Amino acid sequence: MYMDRTFIPSTHKTTVYELGLNLWRDHVIRSSKIQQRLLNILLDLIHKERTGEVINRGLMRNIIKMLTDLGPSVYQEDFEKPFLEVSADFYRAESQEFIECSDCVRIT
Question: Is 0.85 surpassed by the pTM of this model?
Fold first, then answer.
């Protein structure tokens, strides 16, 4: 784009592409209606796959890529923290279930 090639470098302004990403992040991804719904959908997809269901991995990969393209803080704050919490809870429950179902033989 002409403006990005000539005007932006000489004035040290943000490119049109970056402005678009910023607007998308601030007005769509972080809107009160969408942010929580998007997180719930992602975490639900992860839970389904962990429990053996087939999910649309391409959809998930594209959403995660979009979050990382919007900046590391978007990925970390909007997805990674809740993902790690849900993962810890899931694997804590899985390990507890495994321990309860396993026969532990005492070796003396």
Answer: no
